[in-house]
Predict the structure.
Amino acid sequence: MFDYDKYLRLNKLPLIWCAGCGDGIVLKSMLRAIDRIGLSKDEICMVSGIGCSSRLTGYVDFNTLHTTHGRAIAFATGVKMVKPEMTVIVVTGDGDATAIGGNHYIHAARRNIDITVILFNNNIYGMTGGQLSPTTPFGFKASTAPFGSVENTFNISGLAEAAGASFVGRGTVYDAIKLDRMIEKAIRKKGFSVVEVMTPCPTAFGRRNRLGSGADMIKQLKEDSVSIEKASSMTAEELNGKVVTGIFVDKELPEYTANYQKLIEQLQGR
Amino acid sequence: MSKIMGLSGNEAVAHAMRQINPDVAAVYPITPQTELMHQFAEFHSDGLVDTELVLVESEHSAMSATVGAAAAGARAMTATSANGLALMWEIVYIASSLRLPIVMPVVNRALSGPINIHCDHSDTMGARDSGWIQIFSENGQEAYDNAVMAVKISENKTILLPTMVTLDGFILSHTLERVEILEDNEVKKFIGEYHPETSLLDVDKPSTYGALDLQDYYFEHKRQQFEAMGNVLPVIEQVSKEYGKLSGRDYGLIEKYRVDDAERVIILMGSSVGTAKDTVDDLRNAGEKVGLIKIRVYRPFPYNALREALKHVKALAVLDRAISFGTFGGPVFTDVRAMLFGNGVSLPMMNYIYGLGGRDIDKAQIRLAFDSLKDVVKTGKVKKEVNFLGLRD
């Protein structure tokens, strides 16, 4: 049995997440990935913003910083600049990272700073009660769109890829074992890494859209998932409503803190 | 004819917004305001308002969209709390500087950190110098009434300044109360149609908003804001009278509760006033000469009304639900002290900071404040000016 307890602040349990929420699966997957890399708890700084996923920093026994809505990546950038040797991980959600904090998300990717972002995409603002987020699919209901969204959505992984990240992958809470490997690769990667995890919110998204229980929604994720390989031979029509999973980007690119250090050494004539 | 409903504070204000029927409303969630705009979004979806609802991506955008709409000549609203208000900051100042009569309900919540979602007044206190009118509410009824009145106050041609209508987070926003709602057409008639003298969409009379304004005229424009703020208090009293005729509720600037023959008085704002009134009644039943003053309009500060009300008082305690670091006591205390100093009222004053981050305040705590004033009445002296209620040592 994997010993999760050694990474958790047990006195902070139980978790606040609702029954059927997928966030706990991501938490455990992340802990397994960290364990496989063999990082000590002191080597990790975990930063979060505001929202359901961001509550995670309260539960893990790393160096943790719980910040303001949308700004986790900006705070993490500061941490990484001062402590480039530290493994800096941001936990955030679709609303936090791509609406109110969208600017920081694309600029950290552009800079390619060595931070790993675990982005919980549940298609909604869960904590505040189901408002439309930038990933609420067209036509789906939200508390601020009771007759369905009339807005287009962001492709979160696509954004990071276009902005210049070193590593971009999308997984689901159904494929938790694959997710472990993806998170592990993302953390090991020197550069800006994003793992977008599709996770169900039965309370604020599922119920309003009649998607069933958390388990039903996870099963649906399984049905809807299509690997990148398979997707490459499918038409746009066939891909409509599907979740393409896998690693989109995995390349070696100059990293920001390393470049910064090089400049310092160059100017100091070392 | 008004209608009696069971509503939470958030729902009551959402009904006020439904009846105000703004041209534009910008929406972004933040606890504990969220439900207010949920309710309004439902009214919108049910076709009960003509509002253009914009689901923006942050509070910074919410206030920006509201300012843009108001500059284009629309009656525009948004609502927020705490960190949301903080994120709006630069545009909060721009709204008042451009003289846009925006009305914004603010559901009071502690301004982090550490993160806290419960009630205190630290969020709106930060905006007390921003050029917005600020009206505090004791209960859901007042929050509703204040929101309706605020439109008429802000849009008054001698004012043209934005207003924050505040209600205490959770304590009022999430608590069901008996609220009297006016008829829709009564509100419509009361606030009237909005016809701005200038607007960006008035092509026959082109105007510009927010243009670069350096050493040449910036100072004069600030002076104009200062003077507009000086016009506010009589207008609020006038609007309150008119509203009183319509609803039976004329609130004025402050509320005096059993103050006329009181020796010991406390001043406070927001939802704790209800608890304090109960405490005053208890002490009065025991023969003690105590009373309270509720400040409703905090910006502009009702100097004259307060000074007049305090003339005969022997000892005063100001209860602040916010803390001001590096000054002398809480913000309300500092204002009251400044108002009394040099105006011929020599009144020993104590300050009690209470209820930060949603810490509950009860009658025992308020009683303690009244009790501590006994000694002040006797000696005319205050031993310790700044104190805390309900705080661990």
